Amino acid sequence: MLAAARTAFAERGFDGASIRVIAADAGVDPALVHHYFGSKDKLFLAAIEAPADPEELLPAALAGGRDELGANVVRLLLQVWDGPGRTAGLALVRSAVNNEWTARLLREFLVAKVLRRVVGTLGLPKAEGEARGSLVASQLIGVVMARYVLRLEPLASASPEELVAAIGPTVQRYLTGDIVLPGGAVTAL
Amino acid sequence: MLAAARTAFAERGFDGASIRVIAADAGVDPALVHHYFGSKDKLFLAAIEAPADPEELLPAALAGGRDELGANVVRLLLQVWDGPGRTAGLALVRSAVNNEWTARLLREFLVAKVLRRVVGTLGLPKAEGEARGSLVASQLIGVVMARYVLRLEPLASASPEELVAAIGPTVQRYLTGDIVLPGGAVTAL
User: Fold this and answer.
1) Domain boundaries in chain B?
2) Which residues of A touch B134 (CB under 8 A)?
């Protein structure tokens, strides 16, 4: 079931894949997939071995309001990666760098499970939300690479709050700042 | 020789490794290493199969002056990665993510060959330069991951100048802005 799910999510994306198709590919009844995983969300998280469930963690980070969004997103990233999510997170990043299909799955995870929700709180047009989301991702993935993969000092040993103070404003600017957006999306605000 | 060089650079760092030691480990005369590679710099670039030689490319980017530094560094990164450096760059990132020793070599490359030179133009105290350099690295590596590894849209298809406009100010702020620095380095400017 998980192998069929990985294939379907990588080929069709999170939105395009359905439990019905995944169950058919795995040769099982869709009810069985529902029974084991509960929802397409949960099946996806299991299939990619996600380091954390954004559905559980994001609401608190998003509740702080628009002006705190950048800081709260960086803080949440560091909570997951400085905590028990690091091992699974590193495995996912390693696999994504080595394998085009896992790269697609990680991209789907970031876009559909993280960025869309974060940007969704801002009520932006779709193209602008995607442009801002991809900029946010470029900074967050870079923090993961610098702190946990390359262990670049002093960033690697800095306290989470030091990094929230240094990097939060970058993410905030990408989310709500008056910037030139990649891909020709209109500049806003 | 290259294997001995990789070991020495990973174990001792770029500064700590010497051609003398590398030659001894490889069982050859130091003059032979000089003959083949010319300098420790060139030997290092060959050992890690660097995507580009910062010594050749950075001077033009640094010549634009302090206020253009962020934009010029992002522009140079995209020139290398949108150009012939991408294949070697991706191989280096893949290897660094898979292998702790290559991660050390990539870190040494970033610190000793790129960041130190970029930050060096600002005349900062050492700790502050390292703190600012590690923040710059976090954004640059993230651009590489988002654009070339995960191919996150619209960032992946954006023109270089769109990304210079969006991301250059982040790098500029990390280099010269009034920010809280990780690792307890004093805030400056």
Assistant:
1) 2-48, 54-178
2) 146, 152-156
Amino acid residing at B78: L
pLDDT digits (tens, 9 = 90+) for B66-125: 999 999 999 999 999 999 899 999 999 999 998 888 899 999 999 999 999 999 999 999
- Copy the structure tokens of residue B127: 């700790």
Chain A contact present for B112, CB below 8 A: no
Q: Among positive and negative, which fits the CA dihedral A65, A69, A73, A76?
A: negative
Residue A52 backbone zone (phi > 0: left; psi -120 to 50: alpha; other: beta): beta
Rounded to whole angstroms, the Cα distance separating B79 from B143 reads 13
pLDDT recorded at residue B188:
46
The CATH class for the domain spanning A54-178 reads: mainly alpha
Q: Across all residues in chain B, what is the average pLDDT?
A: 92
Q: Return the CATH number of the domain spanning residue range A2-48.
A: 1.10.10.60
Nearest-angstrom CA–CA distance, A118 and A132: 10
Residues ≥6 apart with Cβ < 8 Å to A11? A17
Distance from CA of A24 to the nearest CA of B (A): 28
User: Looking at beta carbons, which residues of chain A come within 8 Å of B145?
Assistant: 138, 141-142, 145
Nearest residue of B to residue A179 by CA position? B166
**Minimum Cα–Cα distance from A93: chain B residue:** B97
Full-model pTM: 0.92
Does B145 contact chain A (CB < 8 Å)? Answer: yes
Question: What is the DSSP code string of B80-135?
Answer: HHHTTTHHHHHHHHHHHHH-HHHHHHHHHIIIIIIIHHHHHTTT--HHHHHHHHHH
Count Cβ atoms within 10 A of the Cβ of residue B84 and give its class: 0-12 exposed, 13-18 middle, 19 or more buried. exposed
- What's the length of chain B? 189
DSSP secondary structure code for residue B22 in this structure:
H
**Residue B62 at interface with chain A, using a CB cutoff of 8 Å:** no
Domains B2-48 and B54-178 share a fold: no
Give every residue of chain A whose pLDDT is below 70, as ranges: 184-189
Read off the pLDDT of residues A140-158 as tens digits, 9 standing for 90 and up. Answer: 999 999 999 999 999 999 9
